[in-house]
Specification:
By secondary structure, this protein is an alpha/beta fold. It is built from ten helices and nine strands. The longest helix is centred in the middle third of the chain and has 13 residues. The termini are far apart. The relative contact order is 0.17. Bound molecules: S-adenosylmethionine.
Length: 233
Amino acid sequence: MPSMYDIYRRHRAEYDRLVAAEDYARHLPDCLAALADWRGKSVLEGGLGTGRVTELYVEPVRHVAGFDREAHMLEAARERLARYADKLDLRPADNLDLPLLPEQAEIFVEGWSWGHSVVDGPGSVESVADALFANVRKNLVAGGLVLLIETLGTNALAPAAPHPRLAEFYSLLQSRYGLRQAAISTDYRFPSARDAAETLGFFFGEPMAQAVLAAGSAIVPEWTGVWTGPMPA
Ligand SMILES: C[S@@+](CC[C@H](N)C(=O)[O-])C[C@H]1O[C@@H](n2cnc3c(N)ncnc32)[C@H](O)[C@@H]1O
Protein backbone atom coordinates (compact mmCIF):
# COMPACT_ATOMS: atom_id res chain seq x y z
CA MET A 1 0.00 0.00 0.00
CA PRO A 2 1.56 3.36 -1.00
CA SER A 3 2.14 6.15 1.53
CA MET A 4 0.14 9.37 1.22
CA TYR A 5 3.22 11.01 -0.27
CA ASP A 6 3.56 8.20 -2.88
CA ILE A 7 -0.06 8.84 -3.76
CA TYR A 8 0.65 12.55 -4.33
CA ARG A 9 3.67 11.64 -6.46
CA ARG A 10 2.16 8.87 -8.59
CA HIS A 11 -1.53 8.13 -7.99
CA ARG A 12 -3.52 11.25 -8.76
CA ALA A 13 -6.39 9.24 -10.28
CA GLU A 14 -6.86 7.25 -7.05
CA TYR A 15 -6.64 10.48 -5.04
CA ASP A 16 -9.39 11.98 -7.19
CA ARG A 17 -11.58 8.90 -6.62
CA LEU A 18 -11.29 9.56 -2.90
CA VAL A 19 -12.09 13.27 -3.00
CA ALA A 20 -14.90 12.79 -5.52
CA ALA A 21 -16.73 10.81 -2.82
CA GLU A 22 -16.20 13.46 -0.13
CA ASP A 23 -18.75 16.06 0.93
CA TYR A 24 -21.63 14.41 -0.90
CA ALA A 25 -24.01 16.82 0.85
CA ARG A 26 -22.01 19.76 -0.58
CA HIS A 27 -21.45 21.70 2.66
CA LEU A 28 -18.00 23.03 1.72
CA PRO A 29 -19.14 25.05 -1.35
CA ASP A 30 -21.76 26.85 0.77
CA CYS A 31 -19.22 27.47 3.49
CA LEU A 32 -16.66 28.98 1.07
CA ALA A 33 -19.32 31.16 -0.54
CA ALA A 34 -20.43 32.44 2.88
CA LEU A 35 -16.95 33.18 4.18
CA ALA A 36 -15.50 35.19 1.29
CA ASP A 37 -16.57 37.45 -1.55
CA TRP A 38 -14.59 35.85 -4.38
CA ARG A 39 -15.81 38.12 -7.18
CA GLY A 40 -12.94 39.64 -9.16
CA LYS A 41 -10.40 38.63 -6.54
CA SER A 42 -6.81 37.53 -7.01
CA VAL A 43 -6.29 34.28 -5.07
CA LEU A 44 -3.19 32.50 -3.82
CA GLU A 45 -3.71 28.79 -3.11
CA GLY A 46 -1.18 26.50 -1.42
CA GLY A 47 -1.10 22.68 -1.66
CA LEU A 48 -3.67 22.90 -4.46
CA GLY A 49 -3.40 19.19 -5.36
CA THR A 50 -5.76 18.16 -8.14
CA GLY A 51 -7.73 21.40 -7.80
CA ARG A 52 -10.90 20.24 -6.04
CA VAL A 53 -11.01 23.32 -3.75
CA THR A 54 -10.01 25.59 -6.64
CA GLU A 55 -12.95 24.29 -8.63
CA LEU A 56 -15.32 25.50 -5.90
CA TYR A 57 -14.28 29.17 -6.10
CA VAL A 58 -12.58 29.65 -9.51
CA GLU A 59 -15.57 30.81 -11.57
CA PRO A 60 -15.93 34.38 -10.19
CA VAL A 61 -12.27 35.11 -9.36
CA ARG A 62 -9.88 37.14 -11.53
CA HIS A 63 -6.67 35.15 -11.05
CA VAL A 64 -5.32 32.11 -9.19
CA ALA A 65 -1.64 31.62 -8.35
CA GLY A 66 -1.61 28.00 -7.20
CA PHE A 67 1.18 25.87 -5.78
CA ASP A 68 1.74 22.27 -4.75
CA ARG A 69 4.90 20.32 -3.98
CA GLU A 70 3.99 17.64 -6.53
CA ALA A 71 3.96 18.39 -10.28
CA HIS A 72 2.00 15.13 -10.67
CA MET A 73 -0.95 16.57 -8.73
CA LEU A 74 -0.79 19.87 -10.63
CA GLU A 75 -1.11 18.00 -13.95
CA ALA A 76 -4.50 16.76 -12.79
CA ALA A 77 -5.47 20.25 -11.62
CA ARG A 78 -4.62 21.65 -15.07
CA GLU A 79 -6.89 19.04 -16.66
CA ARG A 80 -9.72 19.61 -14.19
CA LEU A 81 -9.53 23.40 -14.57
CA ALA A 82 -8.67 23.53 -18.29
CA ARG A 83 -11.51 25.89 -19.16
CA TYR A 84 -10.11 28.46 -16.69
CA ALA A 85 -6.53 28.17 -18.02
CA ASP A 86 -6.39 31.90 -18.87
CA LYS A 87 -6.61 32.90 -15.23
CA LEU A 88 -4.45 30.15 -13.72
CA ASP A 89 -0.76 30.16 -12.87
CA LEU A 90 -0.02 26.72 -11.36
CA ARG A 91 3.53 25.85 -10.32
CA PRO A 92 5.33 23.40 -8.04
CA ALA A 93 6.43 24.89 -4.69
CA ASP A 94 6.55 23.84 -1.06
CA ASN A 95 4.23 25.56 1.42
CA LEU A 96 7.37 26.63 3.28
CA ASP A 97 9.16 27.98 0.21
CA LEU A 98 6.64 29.92 -1.89
CA PRO A 99 8.15 32.25 -4.52
CA LEU A 100 7.50 35.98 -4.39
CA LEU A 101 4.57 36.69 -6.71
CA PRO A 102 4.62 39.61 -9.18
CA GLU A 103 1.22 40.71 -7.84
CA GLN A 104 0.00 40.36 -4.25
CA ALA A 105 -3.16 38.29 -3.81
CA GLU A 106 -6.29 39.35 -1.90
CA ILE A 107 -7.30 35.90 -0.62
CA PHE A 108 -5.16 32.97 0.51
CA VAL A 109 -6.75 29.52 0.63
CA GLU A 110 -5.40 26.04 1.30
CA GLY A 111 -7.13 22.70 1.76
CA TRP A 112 -5.72 19.78 3.73
CA SER A 113 -2.11 20.72 2.91
CA TRP A 114 -0.72 22.91 5.70
CA GLY A 115 -1.54 20.03 8.04
CA HIS A 116 1.13 17.95 6.27
CA SER A 117 3.74 20.69 6.80
CA VAL A 118 2.75 20.94 10.46
CA VAL A 119 2.85 17.19 11.14
CA ASP A 120 6.15 16.76 9.24
CA GLY A 121 7.94 19.66 10.97
CA PRO A 122 10.80 20.47 11.20
CA GLY A 123 10.84 22.09 14.63
CA SER A 124 8.07 23.21 16.94
CA VAL A 125 4.51 23.56 15.73
CA GLU A 126 4.71 27.28 16.46
CA SER A 127 7.85 27.73 14.34
CA VAL A 128 6.31 25.84 11.40
CA ALA A 129 3.08 27.84 11.70
CA ASP A 130 5.01 31.13 11.79
CA ALA A 131 6.93 30.06 8.65
CA LEU A 132 3.72 29.05 6.84
CA PHE A 133 2.11 32.42 7.58
CA ALA A 134 5.32 34.30 6.62
CA ASN A 135 5.27 32.60 3.20
CA VAL A 136 1.74 33.83 2.61
CA ARG A 137 2.14 37.26 4.19
CA LYS A 138 4.81 38.31 1.65
CA ASN A 139 2.33 37.54 -1.15
CA LEU A 140 -0.90 38.96 0.30
CA VAL A 141 -2.20 42.54 0.41
CA ALA A 142 -2.38 44.06 3.90
CA GLY A 143 -5.55 42.80 5.57
CA GLY A 144 -6.02 40.11 2.92
CA LEU A 145 -8.25 37.17 3.85
CA VAL A 146 -6.84 33.84 5.01
CA LEU A 147 -8.98 30.72 4.64
CA LEU A 148 -7.60 27.40 5.89
CA ILE A 149 -9.37 24.06 5.44
CA GLU A 150 -8.07 21.14 7.51
CA THR A 151 -9.19 17.78 8.80
CA LEU A 152 -11.07 17.27 12.07
CA GLY A 153 -11.21 13.51 11.61
CA THR A 154 -12.15 10.66 9.28
CA ASN A 155 -14.64 7.99 10.36
CA ALA A 156 -14.90 9.78 13.72
CA LEU A 157 -18.07 10.36 15.71
CA ALA A 158 -17.25 13.97 16.62
CA PRO A 159 -14.89 16.63 15.25
CA ALA A 160 -11.41 16.55 16.81
CA ALA A 161 -7.83 17.01 15.61
CA PRO A 162 -6.55 13.55 14.63
CA HIS A 163 -2.90 14.23 15.58
CA PRO A 164 -1.33 16.00 18.59
CA ARG A 165 0.63 18.43 16.39
CA LEU A 166 -2.59 19.32 14.55
CA ALA A 167 -4.36 19.89 17.88
CA GLU A 168 -1.64 22.36 18.86
CA PHE A 169 -1.73 24.02 15.44
CA TYR A 170 -5.52 24.42 15.48
CA SER A 171 -5.35 25.95 18.92
CA LEU A 172 -2.65 28.42 17.73
CA LEU A 173 -4.79 29.40 14.73
CA GLN A 174 -7.22 30.93 17.18
CA SER A 175 -5.03 32.04 20.10
CA ARG A 176 -1.94 33.28 18.24
CA TYR A 177 -3.26 34.20 14.79
CA GLY A 178 -6.79 35.32 15.70
CA LEU A 179 -8.64 33.18 13.13
CA ARG A 180 -12.22 31.99 13.69
CA GLN A 181 -13.02 28.30 13.40
CA ALA A 182 -16.09 26.65 11.93
CA ALA A 183 -16.58 22.87 11.90
CA ILE A 184 -18.62 21.29 9.12
CA SER A 185 -19.39 17.72 8.14
CA THR A 186 -18.02 16.69 4.75
CA ASP A 187 -19.06 13.02 4.86
CA TYR A 188 -18.07 10.59 2.12
CA ARG A 189 -20.61 8.59 0.16
CA PHE A 190 -19.40 5.54 -1.80
CA PRO A 191 -21.31 2.99 -3.92
CA SER A 192 -20.95 0.41 -1.11
CA ALA A 193 -19.28 -0.17 2.28
CA ARG A 194 -16.72 -2.40 0.57
CA ASP A 195 -15.88 0.35 -1.91
CA ALA A 196 -15.61 2.82 1.01
CA ALA A 197 -13.16 0.52 2.80
CA GLU A 198 -11.07 0.00 -0.32
CA THR A 199 -10.83 3.66 -1.32
CA LEU A 200 -10.29 5.05 2.20
CA GLY A 201 -7.90 2.19 3.01
CA PHE A 202 -5.77 2.97 -0.04
CA PHE A 203 -5.25 6.50 1.27
CA PHE A 204 -5.34 6.14 5.07
CA GLY A 205 -4.05 2.56 5.45
CA GLU A 206 -5.30 -0.87 6.48
CA PRO A 207 -6.58 0.01 10.00
CA MET A 208 -8.90 2.59 8.40
CA ALA A 209 -10.09 0.01 5.84
CA GLN A 210 -10.90 -2.44 8.63
CA ALA A 211 -12.72 0.19 10.73
CA VAL A 212 -14.81 1.30 7.74
CA LEU A 213 -15.65 -2.28 6.82
CA ALA A 214 -16.65 -2.99 10.43
CA ALA A 215 -18.98 0.06 10.41
CA GLY A 216 -20.59 -1.47 7.31
CA SER A 217 -21.89 1.77 5.79
CA ALA A 218 -21.35 3.34 2.37
CA ILE A 219 -21.49 6.75 4.12
CA VAL A 220 -18.38 7.53 6.17
CA PRO A 221 -18.27 10.53 8.50
CA GLU A 222 -15.65 13.19 7.79
CA TRP A 223 -15.22 16.41 9.81
CA THR A 224 -13.61 19.52 8.40
CA GLY A 225 -12.44 22.70 10.10
CA VAL A 226 -12.45 26.01 8.26
CA TRP A 227 -10.44 28.86 9.80
CA THR A 228 -10.81 32.42 8.49
CA GLY A 229 -9.79 35.96 9.25
CA PRO A 230 -7.57 38.78 8.07
CA MET A 231 -3.90 37.88 7.62
CA PRO A 232 -2.34 38.31 11.06
CA ALA A 233 0.38 41.00 11.24
C1 LIG B 1 -4.71 16.01 1.00
S1 LIG B 1 -4.01 16.72 -0.44
C2 LIG B 1 -5.02 18.15 -0.65
C3 LIG B 1 -5.03 18.63 -2.08
C4 LIG B 1 -6.10 19.64 -2.40
N1 LIG B 1 -5.91 20.88 -1.67
C5 LIG B 1 -7.48 19.07 -2.10
O1 LIG B 1 -8.22 19.69 -1.33
O2 LIG B 1 -7.81 18.02 -2.64
C6 LIG B 1 -2.52 17.41 0.16
C7 LIG B 1 -1.73 18.14 -0.93
O3 LIG B 1 -0.68 18.88 -0.31
C8 LIG B 1 0.49 18.68 -1.04
N2 LIG B 1 1.59 18.86 -0.09
C9 LIG B 1 1.95 18.06 0.94
N3 LIG B 1 2.98 18.59 1.60
C10 LIG B 1 3.25 19.78 0.98
C11 LIG B 1 4.20 20.80 1.21
N4 LIG B 1 5.07 20.73 2.21
N5 LIG B 1 4.20 21.87 0.38
C12 LIG B 1 3.32 21.95 -0.65
N6 LIG B 1 2.39 21.01 -0.92
C13 LIG B 1 2.37 19.93 -0.10
C14 LIG B 1 0.40 17.29 -1.60
O4 LIG B 1 1.24 17.12 -2.73
C15 LIG B 1 -1.07 17.20 -1.93
O5 LIG B 1 -1.35 17.64 -3.23
